[in-house]
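Deliverable D2.4 — example input (structure tokens):
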């Protein structure tokens, strides 16, 4: 199971800070890429991050409902 811990600044949930894998927390070493994608029909936005952590790359997505998803990049 992958869980995302986030940095909450004055704008709310701004960026991922750590990933929890099997109850072990790994700090994100570097955010390599950030993109805001908008659905042209619904106008909903999601933010996509590519991060380096634990000697691997992860794709972390903040969804419009303020939920977070995390996937290991192959």
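Example output (designed residues):
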């Amino acid at each position: 199971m992958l869980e995302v811990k986030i940095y909450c600044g004055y704008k709310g949930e701004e960026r991922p800070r750590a990933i929890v894998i099997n109850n072990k927390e790994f700090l994100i070493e570097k955010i390599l890429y950030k993109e805001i994608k908008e659905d042209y029909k619904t106008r909903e936005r999601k933010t996509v991050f590519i991060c380096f952590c634990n000697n691997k790359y992860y794709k972390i997505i903040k969804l419009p409902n303020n939920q977070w998803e995390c996937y290991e990049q192959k």
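DSSP finds no helices and seven strands in the chain.
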